[in-house]
UniProtKB/TrEMBL annotation:
<dbReference type="Pfam" id="PF01381">
    <property type="entry name" value="HTH_3"/>
</dbReference>
<protein>
    <submittedName>
        <fullName>Helix-turn-helix domain-containing protein</fullName>
    </submittedName>
</protein>
<feature type="domain" description="HTH cro/C1-type">
    <location>
        <begin position="14"/>
        <end position="67"/>
    </location>
</feature>
<dbReference type="InterPro" id="IPR001387">
    <property type="entry name" value="Cro/C1-type_HTH"/>
</dbReference>
<dbReference type="InterPro" id="IPR010982">
    <property type="entry name" value="Lambda_DNA-bd_dom_sf"/>
</dbReference>
Amino acid sequence: MSGRLDAGKLYAALDAERLANGLSWRQLAADAGVSTSLVSRMGNGHRPDLDGFIALVQWLGMPAETFMIWPEGGRPRRKLSLEAQLAPLLRAQEELAEEDRRHLIDMVNMTVRHFRARKTKGG
């Protein structure tokens, strides 16, 4: 089984935060930038769409992984490549122009490929 979203856990976290802040579901939806019908559907056991999920976890200020059900109860065993780890960090650098971010990502990818090629050649 592959990982999936625990929509019930997300809804419970939203409800707890809503109650702690004295908000109605309508206010929560407006603050989070989602439709009231989205949170209503979630209350009936439906999962949010990806954009709604992102908006809600950002509103909560919690990592998206918090609401994941991992295969066989564990986290993925596969180690992320260096490129996959660095790309989001480089993309998050708002002071850089998009073209410059893309250039840095390309340079990192090229450098890592170079190191791997050297390693497989025994050098």
